[in-house]
């Protein structure tokens, strides 16, 4: 029986290792930026590319289109995972980068529904699917590439920098959106300025391309290639071994699904909850999200380092358990911050009915007549600083749970699979779990709320997924920290 060789980790100079992390992370940040601006602008996009007769249906359609990008991710994992295991991590990086950047750039130039009718949402959906395909190949490559350069005893530390890229991309997307909104004014931004964050992707992707094109292939893959041991059919090899399929299923149901649920709930659904259900003014909501995500981002690295010391499993399981226990009370607290208080005065003005609260909160209700003579009632809440801080703290706690579940996961997944099928075997369960289960969380949660009439009904979905992951993970996941990478 042939023995599988293992490696305690490559000998890579620290300077070279940081260059690898920077090059991988820079491109991944840009890809996440591209992917996230769609979700951050969902409320505006729904008015541009879908019929305006039913705003709620248009918003749900936009969330469904947003979710389509996540559903496409497993297919991207299959396509680009195969390429990554056959031709190399570096070249696959470049393809996913160009595909993502080009698709995002093109969204900036799609005519609105009023101009081209149903062709507008169709084009939007196609480009969103292309984004999803690209992202499906990106994460597995970045995690694999960095891990294959990292020393064994610090693999959690160095791969955790890849985990920060999603939050940084999310933060950059919010920063760009707020900057454009401030420079153009709210009306101009809503009218046409929302296209600028998409257009900026063209510049960013060119910059990242030049950073990535000078990267070397990973030592582990280069060694396999030199020995002629590269898999000729990574997809078949990933599924022909019962043990490997078992590992993929354990990874998906025992770690990734819960991580994906809390990640997308804290990053996306919380934003939808604040703006659409609590009616907080858009600029304030974006600022709250940006500050909360920024403050939580260093904890990806903290928990990655912690996983090198006490184990991946303990840290990840703590994250999903805390999420399953505290998501509901956190959202009840968010609702209380915004909707409870002592009313000081209520008056009618040209802007509508304005209610002033003792804590400085102001609720404005206005009525707008639509083209079909229907009336649209709009509520907007302006929060005082104290309420913003409390709301930001509650978002921060959610993201903190996500950093616990997400920080060690790249190292954990890389350590499960052998080098010749690592890109494929890692990417498929990760993107199925994050794409279908996690990525659809905002849509499913919003849909549950609309169907039941309860603003909290949507939380049952991520709570179920995080609880399921904790149970399966505790029973089936084995510790991988300190494990040499199999060739």
UniProtKB/TrEMBL annotation:
* GO terms for cellular component: plasma membrane
Spell out the subcellular localization from the entry.
Answer: Cell membrane
Answer whether the UniProt record assigns the keyword Oxidoreductase to this protein: no
Question: Does the record carry Metal-binding as a key word?
Answer: no
Matches recorded under Pfam families: Sugar_tr (PF00083)
Q: Which domain of life is it from?
A: Bacteria
Q: Which PROSITE patterns match?
A: MFS, SUGAR_TRANSPORT_2
Q: Which UniProt keywords apply?
A: Cell membrane, Membrane, Transmembrane, Transmembrane helix, Transport
The record's annotation in SUPFAM superfamilies points to: MFS general substrate transporter
In this chain the Major facilitator superfamily (MFS) profile domain maps to 20-481
- What is this entry's stated membrane topology? Multi-pass membrane protein
Entry's Gene Ontology molecular function annotations: transmembrane transporter activity
Give TM regions. Answer: 20-45, 57-79, 91-110, 116-137, 158-180, 192-211, 245-263, 283-303, 389-416, 428-447, 459-477
Please report the name of this protein according to its UniProt entry.
Answer: Predicted arabinose efflux permease, MFS family
């Amino acid at each position: 029986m042939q023995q599988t060789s293992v490696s305690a980790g490559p000998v890579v100079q620290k300077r070279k290792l940081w260059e690898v992390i920077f090059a991988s992370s820079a491109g991944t940040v840009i890809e996440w930026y591209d992917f996230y601006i769609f979700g951050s602008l969902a409320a505006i996009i729904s008015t541009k590319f879908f019929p305006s007769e039913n705003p709620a249906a248009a918003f749900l359609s936009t969330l469904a289109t947003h979710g389509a990008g996540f559903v496409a991710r497993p297919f991207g994992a299959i396509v680009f995972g195969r390429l990554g295991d056959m031709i190399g991590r570096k070249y696959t990086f470049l393809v996913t980068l160009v595909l993502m950047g080009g698709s995002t750039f093109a969204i900036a130039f799609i005519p609105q529904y009023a101009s081209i009718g149903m062709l507008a949402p169709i084009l939007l959906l196609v480009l969103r699917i292309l984004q999803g395909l690209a992202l499906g190949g990106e994460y597995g490559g970045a995690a694999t590439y960095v891990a294959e350069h990292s020393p064994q005893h610090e693999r959690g530390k160095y791969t955790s920098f890849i985990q920060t890229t999603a939050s940084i991309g999310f933060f950059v997307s919010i920063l760009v959106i707020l900057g454009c909104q401030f420079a153009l004014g709210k009306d101009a931004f809503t009218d046409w300025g929302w296209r600028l964050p998409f257009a900026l992707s063209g510049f960013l992707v060119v910059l990242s391309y030049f950073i990535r094109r000078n990267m070397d292939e990973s030592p582990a893959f280069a060694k396999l290639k030199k020995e002629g041991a590269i898999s000729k059919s990574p997809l078949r090899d990933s599924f022909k071994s019962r043990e490997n399929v078992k590992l993929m299923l354990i990874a998906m149901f025992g770690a990734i699904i819960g991580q994906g649920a809390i990640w997308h709930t804290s990053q996306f659904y919380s934003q939808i909850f604040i703006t659409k259900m609590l009616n907080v003014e858009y600029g304030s909501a974006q600022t709250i999200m940006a500050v909360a995500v920024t403050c939580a981002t260093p904890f990806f690295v903290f928990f990655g380092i912690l996983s090198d010391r006490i184990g991946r499993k303990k840290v990840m399981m703590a994250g999903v358990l805390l999420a399953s226990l505290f998501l509901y009370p956190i959202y009840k607290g968010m609702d209380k911050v915004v909707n409870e208080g002592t009313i000081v005065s209520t008056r009618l003005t040209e802007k509508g009915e304005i209610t002033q609260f003792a804590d400085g909160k102001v609720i404005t209700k206005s009525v707008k007549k639509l083209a079909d003579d229907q009336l649209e009632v709009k509520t907007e809440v302006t929060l005082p600083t104290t309420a913003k801080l409390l709301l930001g703290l509650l978002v921060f706690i959610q993201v903190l749970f996500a950093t616990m579940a997400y920080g060690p996961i790249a190292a954990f997944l890389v350590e499960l699979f052998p080098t010749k099928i690592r890109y494929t075997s890692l990417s498929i369960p990760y993107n199925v779990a994050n794409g279908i289960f996690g990525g659809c969380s905002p849509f499913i949660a919003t849909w549950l709320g609309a169907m039941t009439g309860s603003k909290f009904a949507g939380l049952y979905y991520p709570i179920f997924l995080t609880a399921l992951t904790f149970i399966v993970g505790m029973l089936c996941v084995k510790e991988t920290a300190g494990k040499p990478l199999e060739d």
